[in-house]
Amino acid sequence: MPLTDPVGTPVAATRPWPPPPEEPGRSASRLAWYAAVARWAPSKHNTQPWLFRITDEGLEFSSDPTRLLHETDPLQRELVISLGAAVHIACVAARALGHTPRVELCPDGGTRCLARLVETGAHAVTELDRDLLAAVAGRRTDRGPLDATTLAPSLPFDMQSLASDSGATLRLIRTPGDRATLAALVERADRQLAQRPEVTAELRPWLRETGDPRPDGVPTDHTRGPASYRAAFVQRDFSSPESPPAVDRAGEDRPLLGVLFTRADHPLDWLVAGQALAAVLLSAHVAGAHASYLNQPLEVPALRAELADELTLSGFPQVVIRLGRGGDVAPTPRRPAEDVTVYE
Asked: Do 327 and 175 form a contact (C-beta atoms < 8 A)?
């Protein structure tokens, strides 16, 4: 049965990676294919801060030190979350190809190897495996209005279970009071970050005007423009005078909101948060939803602590996410697989 995405489009027509290897006995070829799929994980400003190493022991995930964001991610917390998302997506690729993955977390959490994927045997491929692989290609960051009111009522609870299975907790922000608290914190953080020239200077190299051929960064039309600041939950504005906003759609913003948090706050916890994030994003896409982020408070240490306190989280917030049905959003570019994959 051919792979299809959640709305029935054949994946072969849209998948942004090479066909899977046909040599069943060559594990290195499979690991390289998992890495090619994992490139489509989310990352802050689409920096794609990962390196994939194929060794005799498996597929290793480490960071690319040339892609650090020193001003807003000085501890590399968000970078490691991105790597965790790539780990989960590589596991999705393995299961869709009929192999059971096991993730080994490197004990010191160092940059040389944060995690390793190894194959442990055969896996009976399910329809869900196919749908999740298709969701890797179809997933979008949508900063326009999102509507969660028509999503399946079970979806929030399914996503909470997926986060828990990964070792994190997804706290849904449902009450008017909690939503107002979150909105105020996002607005305050966005304003504080905008007042720091060094933050603006750090973002500028990652902005991509229409027609820019570089395979990373944020397209400047993937934004609501000035409407970002009028939204109930302030979105980052990446727009420029040369790129009209592409997602400033009409419609009320009625997203499902959640905070992913972990009990501790060390690199391996960040890796777990990334795995949970990818699981939630792919499940949401299969259910027909897009997502975007409200992470501004997490980039201001005092406001990150305030968010945890005000929302009575029993841990450390790692990602703030908004989900709902959105519009048509073009994919962001990715670096070629050969640029991020090495053999050792």
From this structure: no
* Cβ atoms within 10 Å of 285's Cβ, excluding its own: 23
Measured N-to-C along each axis, helices 77-96 and 127-138 cross at an angle, to the nearest 10 degrees, of 140
**For residues 34 and 39, what is the distance between their CA atoms, to the nearest angstrom?**
9
Task: Give this prediction's pTM.
Answer: 0.94
Q: Hunting for tokens 């841990």 — which residue is that? A: 315
Taking only the tens place, the pLDDT of each residue in 179-228 is 999 999 999 999 999 999 999 999 999 999 999 999 999 999 999 998 89
User: Environment class of residue 43 by beta-carbon count within 10 Å: exposed (0-12), middle (13-18) or buried (19+)?
Assistant: buried
Dig out the tokens for 105 from the structure. Answer: 């977390």
Write the Ramachandran bin of 114: left for phi over 0, alpha for psi from -120 to 50, otherwise beta: alpha
The pair phi, psi for residue 323, each rounded to 5°, is: -135, 150
Residues whose CB is less than 8 angstroms from the CB of residue 161 and which lie 6 or more positions away in sequence, other chains included: none
When computed from its CA atoms, the radius of gyration of the chain, rounded to whole angstroms, is 19
Q: Is the pLDDT of residue 156 over 90?
A: yes
In this structure, what token pair is assigned to residue 314? 């029993």
> What are the CA-CA distances from residue 253 to residues 121, 145, 228, 232, 289 (Å)?
45, 4, 11, 8, 13
Tokens of 35: 């890495």
